Amino acid sequence: MSRQLNVAVIGASGAVGEVFLRVAAERKFPIGQLKLLATKRSAGKQMEYAGQSYTVEETSLDALRGADLVFCSATSEASKLWGPQVVQAGAVMIDDGSAYRMQENVPLVVPEVNGADVDWHEGILSIPNCTTTPLAMALHALRQVATIARVTTSTYQAVSGTGAQAVAELKSQLAAFGRGEAIPAPEVYPHQIAMNVIPQVDSFGEDMYTGEELKMRNETRKILHLPELPFAATCVRVPTIIGHAESVHVQFEGPAGVEDAREALSKMPGLAVMDEPAKSVYPTPLNTEGDDRAFVGRLRRDQSVEHGLVFWVVSDNLRKGAATNALQIAEEMMRRGKI
Predict the structure, then answer these.
(1) Which of 130, 225, 235, 307 is labelled catalytic?
(2) For residue range 106-116, what is the model confidence (pLDDT) as tens digits?
(3) For residue 301, which phi and psi values (nearest 5 degrees)?
(4) Could you identify which of 75, 135, 190, 256 might form a hypothetical disulfide with 252, taking C-beta atoms 3.0 to 4.6 angstroms apart as the criterion?
(5) Are residues 7 and 35 in contact, defined by beta-carbon separation less than 8 angstroms?
(6) 36 pLDDT exceeds 70?
């Protein structure tokens, strides 16, 4: 990947944008010219990349001019506004939001699972939801053992998945509790998040599933190329800052032994098995934070069905759940000559 790319980052001043710059420097991604873009409110902010200081600019067509590759981690409205203009200008946009994920002509990519899908991009590619990515990786490994018949999952999602305001809200509530003061009324979430769990991520639909739960189902089906996969999720917000965890039940069409599953998971690129429960060794948000891999533990047989497994998966939602996956998609495109 010796060719250098002119890169623009929309939403550079947000939580994912900051991690994107850190991960790009770690991976030595071949950036030539770099533009850091955000809303008017963040314009003028100084940010660092690879030891150099950059000034954040307000996102505009003029600021995007000359970019080969645009990473967007902003609102869906911003993605919809700038995506077509990026493509019209002859560049490629990798979008971290939900605006394009389910469009038929937009690849939704986890490179370790369906990297070949970048071959048919038309200028816009999407990153999956940060809970979808580690799950799709684990399921892809397990389907090498037996055909998947059904998936049920419950998530434990950190507040950084909502954004900087949610992180500030949790910290403010915890600080007030620690001082013995009245806890401030919630503004980001419908209920207090400190010392609580909230079984609602996104808004409820007519079927009483939330948008996040439907994203997990629909995105997993698209990434695995299994459009009819029976799938149900319950998504829960918990009072942690970084790291999404999931409890997963998988039913198979035929025998799927624990040791065969463990071997398949261990061989899966980007996935690590951390599973010695007798020694209390299993992944948690704290012991996986800052790592680009997804981690699996608590692997065991599901005794309620004939062919079933249960496991626990955790990943850093700002890295593999967002920034790292975006950079890996770009690297995959460069390897395949698609940018």
Answers:
(1) 130
(2) 999 999 999 99
(3) -75, 140
(4) 256
(5) yes
(6) yes
Mean pLDDT of 281-289: 98
**Residue in 16, 33, 28 with CA at minimum distance from that of residue 67:** 33
Per-residue pLDDT at 2: 60
**Gap between the Cα atoms of 258 and 188, Å rounded:** 41
Multiple choice CATH, 132-317, 3.30.360.10, 3.40.50.1240, 3.40.30.10, 1.25.10.10: 3.30.360.10
Specify whether 130 is catalytic: yes
What lies within 8 Å, CB to CB, of 180 at 6+ separation is: none
Token duo for residue 273? 């098995």
Tell if the pTM clears 0.90, that is, is over it: yes
Return the SS3 of 286: helix
Ranges in the chain annotated CATH 3.40.50.720 = 5-128+322-335
Distance from C-alpha of 17 to C-alpha of 12, rounded to nearest angstrom: 4
**Where do the CATH 3.30.360.10 domains begin and end in the chain?**
132-317
- Per the CB < 8 A criterion, the answer to whether 284 and 262 are in contact is no
Distance CA 331, CA 311 (A): 30
295 alpha-carbon distance from chain centroid? 14
Residues facing residue 126 across a β-bridge = 95, 108
Residue 120 C-alpha from the chain's centroid: 22
CATH fold of the domain at 5-128+322-335: Rossmann fold (3.40.50)
Selecting among 121, 140, 235, 244, the annotated active-site residue is 244
* Cα 286 off chain centre by: 17
